[in-house]
């Protein structure tokens, strides 16, 4: 019988620590923010994301504005005209005109915008000069004054506070001035380039023209002058001007504001000789306890805060606010944000703030991504203008800033303001389509010919990227 074979090979040495393998830790589930962020980054990385963000934010703001104007004016319009739709009908007409302006400006190339800048600014200065002249003639009794109003007439021309009428056609020259400063200022600064580091280049012709504009606008409307000042600062900041220039501008600006405030006691703007200085009262009212304040500006602030308090988190409901009918001054214009607070609550106010934040992000994103100096400066100027005006208006309503009488962009009533604002958004949309990546994507897969004819033509194709560069070359 065979013998059993015995395996004499040494057994493998096994470490005691290796005999027990610990279980792998379970993967932690991703939070909602971790799941959403990649999707958001993916959407923002698309070539035309700036364009669509701009259309979405401005379109929603316009829709909210039309809704709130109807809510704020329907009962008052019915009491005055017998129709609840008379005020919103006018606002819809201006919205349509503004959309036409958006369409036209979206189709214009940068070279045409640069060419038109000086004519837009020149038109605004002429209209402002006529408006200021009529009001100055009113002060010395040379023109007809409508009793009980601020209206001044000279033939077919009529001046009413910030409005200038030629027959039935009314316009706010200060709104045209904002667009003119953006286009003309961006063109001038882009042409000067690196020479802007010298005071002589800044002094001519930028500062004299802007100074004249500040006087003409500030004479009637200090709030709009502050928006123009913010706009000019945004243009110079985007151009890379030295900080010491801003310090000098700050001193000159504060001095000019002080002179305009003092001039209100001498009849400047809507002031009256010998009456209380309304511009100074707007500032000092912020530092007075409400129980010790008895001016009209205190009344506006109290009613605005009451509307915010009544609204709570979710509001009393659209159209159900009571303060706007008899107690809230300028409910459809300067204080329409208080109507939003009462009827839509904190949630509605937060939505509007979020949309303006998206608009600000998109505008500065466009300015950062375009490779043309003029487009970069104009995009910065338009964004600074709209955001600064929204901040000043909302700050005045909630009591953080003086009341200036500025409308809230897209939301308040006002024909010229809405038309010019939508035209400026059209310019931003044109710049968004001209971003290098967006232009390449549009040329790679161009829309149908009828879309290009009816909506917007193809933007110019940027130069090819250099090797080893992830961004297009700067011109």
Tell me what the structure shows.
With 475 residues, this protein is mainly α. It has one domain (48-454). The protein has helices at 32-44, 49-81, 86-107, 110-139, 173-192, 199-203, 206-220, 222-238, 243-263, 278-284, 296-311, 323-326, 336-369, 373-398, 415-433, 436-444, 449-454; strands at residues 144-145, 151-154, 157-160, 163-166, 169-171. A hairpin with a 2-residue loop joins strand 3 and strand 4. Helix 2 runs antiparallel to helix 15 and helix 8 runs antiparallel to helix 14. It starts with 31 loop residues before the first helix and ends in a 21-residue tail after the last helix. The model is unreliable at 468-475 (pLDDT under 50). One of its GO terms (molecular function) is lipid-linked peptidoglycan transporter activity. Belongs to the SEDS family. FtsW subfamily. It is a multi-pass membrane protein.
Strand content: under 5%
Separation, N- and C-terminal Cα atoms: 98 Å
Largest sheet: 5 strands, antiparallel
| Count of the domains | 1
Order of helical and strand elements: HHHHEEEEEHHHHHHHHHHHHH
Strand order of the largest sheet: 1-2-3-4-5
Output the radius of gyration.
29 Å
> How many beta-strand segments?
5
Contiguous uncertain segments of 5+ residues? 468-475
Q: Estimate the helix proportion, in percent.
A: 55-70%
Q: What spatial form do the alpha-carbon principal axes imply?
A: globular
Summing up helix and strand content along with how strands pair, one would put the structural category as mainly alpha
Average pLDDT, rounded to a whole number, is 80
Total number of helical segments?
17
